[in-house]
Amino acid sequence: MSKKSRVILAIVGILTVAGIVGYFVWSARASMPEIETAKAATEKLAVTVKASGETKAGVRYDVYPPTQGVLDRVYVSDGETVTAGMALAVMDTRPIELQVAQAKAALSQANAQLAAINDSAVSPADRAAAQANVTAARNAYEAAKKQSAMAADTSTYAVQLEAAHAATEAARNALKDASAAYDAYPSEDSTKAALAAARAEASIAYLSARAAEEQLRQADPATASVSAKAAESQAYAALKGAEAQLAKLKGNTSISAQRAAAKDGAAQARAALELAQKTLDDAKLVAPIDGVVIFNAGSSMIPGVVMPPLSEGSAVSPGTAPFTIMDFDALSFTAEVDEGDIGRIQVGMDGSVTLDAFSGTTINTKVAHINPVAQRTATGGTVFEVELLLTGSSADILLGMKGRTTIEVSTRAQALTVPIEAWFSEGGKDFVYVVSDNKLKKTAVTIGAETDTRIEVLSGLEEGKVVALLGATQYRDGMAVRTAAAK
What we know:
Number of strands: 22
Oligomer: single chain
Strand content: 25-35%
């Protein structure tokens, strides 16, 4: 065989082997499941609530009474055209006026109690005066006691007389102290009166001591001893009285808690009066807008007696609106929102309405009213009526047209999202399958808001990553796959 022939045979062999290898590679790849994928993207994510409903006439405002009671007068008739601020009815205000009077009395009582506590407060000057009184009384008692002791010793009359003189001088000094305390206090109040009493007692003690001394000079020693003992007893009683008054004042210093409680009581009484007065002011029910007044059913306060709707004497309560004002110049769309979604909806939120009769038209609108009373559906579900105004549309909208609304309850301006088909939960945790080098990687993520088609990924995934969309194929971590074009 020639050299050329051997080269040709070698090339043919290499190609044959390459073909066989390629065949097996192709066969292995062809056996991989083909899956749909999508890329994680940052976008504006609008979280919405969708509900069906129909068009109805006008804007409506319910008029509620401020409290439970009866209607005293009704000024309008059912179906009458009214203007904003026009009186519709007035409640019987006699019970409300009684509540106002009671609230005023309670406030006066609370204020009087607070004033009494403030008046009973003990000032530092009060305690200082009482202390001065105790000091003067103690000095007088000590002088009287010395005089009595000296007078009891009848062996030396001269010594007794000297002691009597010393007691008189001590009583004189006590009187000077009490007089100085009285003169130094500037105000004419209870403290001044206490100082005057202390001065009077010191004066009596001084006069008693001086009288005892004079009597000793003029009488025999036995008589002087009796007088001195009586003066001692009197001075002791005065001292104990002064000490008791001081102890009483010291025990009455802790009134801050009482004052705080009294202030709180006065504040509550004032709030109760304001509420009662507002209820009285709101007893006249007025129309909030121009429109047509619609009567709702009324009932009599007398058991067994049926009253015409909202006549005089009809019972009303804050939980039920006796009047509804309708503006028939504007149309609204009333949507039946499921009870699971109503908590996320607020008046003023943006929304859109599409009507079956105008499938290609979207009407942008806002939430105007949320009916607080639940409604039952034909299947037994619970819904709440949400009204959206239909203004600015060129379509010839008629009453009773069916359609759907989409209400935007929240918006994420820069949200990293993936199609909702890419997300799954397992064991209480959230995951996506990231596609890398034709293999699946099970990746834990934290999710946020979601819509019907997209879901927000808060962590665990980066923008631009390719994720697998869940389908009929059972996925597993590390699984080899073929990918279609990412969406």
